[in-house]
Amino acid sequence: MQNVTTHQVPYPIGTPGTPWGPAEVAAWRAGQQRRRSYAEDVLRVIDRLRERFDVSEYGRLDYAADSYTLFAVRSPDWRDNLPTVLVTGGVHGYETSGVHGALQFLEREAARYAGRANLLVAPCVSPWAYERIHRWNPDAIDPNRSFRADSQAGESAALWRLLAPYSDSALLHIDLHETTDSDESEFRPALAARDGVDFEPGEIPDGFYLVGDTENPQPAFQQAIISAVEKVTHIAPADERGEIIGSPVVAPGVINYALKQLGLCAGITNARYTTTTEVYPDSPRATPKQCNDAQVAAVCAAIDFALG
């Protein structure tokens, strides 16, 4: 576990103990600057994939001067008698390997599942946040606590509509994430400030881990992914309390959340197999390539297990 330096002074926006209102959200949004390009990093890769996959628009986000088209990539040989596999990345835009791991899977590995499964991949759910390397959307909403039919987050609502037809037919949904040092130094303090509560410092797990579903944990499935990923990068150990990010470790590198209750992406459907990956890109023992490769290894292991 990594001890990360955190804010020792009140968060610079808002009044301690008072939840943000529109003025605070506007002040926070005004401080966010574009730091990379969705068009260059994501759409350019998706354009290359059009020769081998079906690419379709599933939504559009209009945020003042910024507008983003959301794309899904599907198997070209979609057949109703095949199992459906869902892969999502970039729900939190700052979690880089979630986006590039999904794209790398499509470019390098997806073809080997042709005729065995229908693949549906949404590689960058939150492009505004991707460009600003942030967790929230411009309304200071966390998309990954907002996956409900009546979601106020445009990113979450668009993906919900995309995946709703597969709610009962999907076999697998794997959602690709990262846990970063900035979770503790920026995003959790910002969350506490936004909600008007005290910030309680925590620890960042050093390594890869998975978040399964409390209501449908599928331990053998989770372990199959861990076994594949540990060949690529190290697995996060439990802390001295036997926990990872405050949740009990139920198996090496695995914790469980109530996915649907919390409005998490991996809980959108009733898929038999669901999991959320968490890569640690800030580890001195991991490179960006390893992080992307770990995401791809996780996706392939998940599909291989689900297909039997």
Automatic annotation (TrEMBL):
Cofactor(s) this protein requires: Zn(2+)
The UniProt record lists the keyword Iron: no
Alphabetical list of Pfam families matching this protein: AstE_AspA_cat
Record's protein name: Peptidase
Matches recorded under InterPro entries: AstE_AspA_cat (IPR055438), Peptidase_M14 (IPR000834)
Organism: Dyella thiooxydans
Ranges where the Peptidase M14 domain occurs: 34-308
Entries under Gene3D superfamilies matching the protein: Zn peptidases
Family that this chain belongs to: Belongs to the peptidase M14 family.
Keyword list, A-Z: Hydrolase, Metal-binding, Zinc
Signal peptide start and end residues: none
BP term (GO), one: proteolysis
SUPFAM superfamilies: Zn-dependent exopeptidases
GO molecular function, one term: zinc ion binding
Superkingdom of origin: Bacteria
Keyword Zinc: yes
